[in-house]
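Provenance

Sequences were taken from public entries as deposited. Structures were produced by running a predictor on each sequence independently, with no templates supplied. The record for MgtE intracellular N domain-containing protein from Butyrivibrio hungatei is shown for reference.
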Amino acid sequence: MADNSMMTPMDDPKAAKKKLADEKKEYRKKLREQRKEQKEKEAEFAERTAEINGDDAGGLATLIITFLIILIWLAIMALLVKLDVGHFGSEILAPLLRDIPYVNIILPDGSISTDSSETPVDFSNAESSASGINSMEEANAYIKRLEQALQSEMELNSSYASSIEKLETEVARLEPFEKQQKEFYEEKANFYNSIVYGDYAPDASAYASYYEMIDPDNAAEIYRKVVQGEYDDAAIKAFATTYSGMKAKKAAAIFDEMVAENQIELVSRILAQMSVENRGDILAAMKEENAAKLTQLLEPTSLEQKSTKVTG
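Predicted structure for MgtE intracellular N domain-containing protein:
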């Protein structure tokens, strides 16, 4: 009696389809493995065939030939550098390769120099020199020259600053004297205007009575000096007017010559009749030693003549 619970694969369609799919999958897997194995075999056979036919020897020969071609080109380049064709070796490669041992033997003769001072470069013109720099040594020399020029300019500026400081100190020292001199002139002018020539000044009879009281010889001498002083003052005023109208440099040259001829007293009297501006310009243009002596003579305590300022 047959068991009804038992069923053949054909009786279950789903199970049959699944089994068929698994078999196809297994078949394709085995097929891929066979193809892979076939390719490996073909590659193995190709390698063995190449070994038998000597193909590796041909590849080595190609490598050797390529290497020889490179060597030939390098030799040609080294020869061109050594011959300094187009100054390529001396101007371009020499600064780069001169310090590299063995490699620098390809450089042209004379292009290797350990002392940059052997080939001095003229950097008198900064712009043209900077454009003509072709090596590090020339650049260092150019920078050194600029530093020296800068140092010289700084020293020169320092000397100028020192001179200016001395002049400012001298001006500050003379300012009180100029102020005192100006005050003295003003005070003396006021004295003459208010006392000597003013409305309440003594008349001629008063002066005559005074002269009668003193010794006749002394009175005559005093009178002579007074009259001579008036004439001298008039002449000094004329000189002051003339020199005030000149250029300060020209007047200073004349005064220097007068001082050299021992006429420094006359020069000081003429200067005393000038304005402060004209007198200062002329003294500034005179020789320093003469200007110093005249400045001492022009101090208020040294002036004895009547002051009348003249502007030019």
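Residues 215-310 form one domain.
The CA atoms of residues 89 and 242 lie 79 Å apart.
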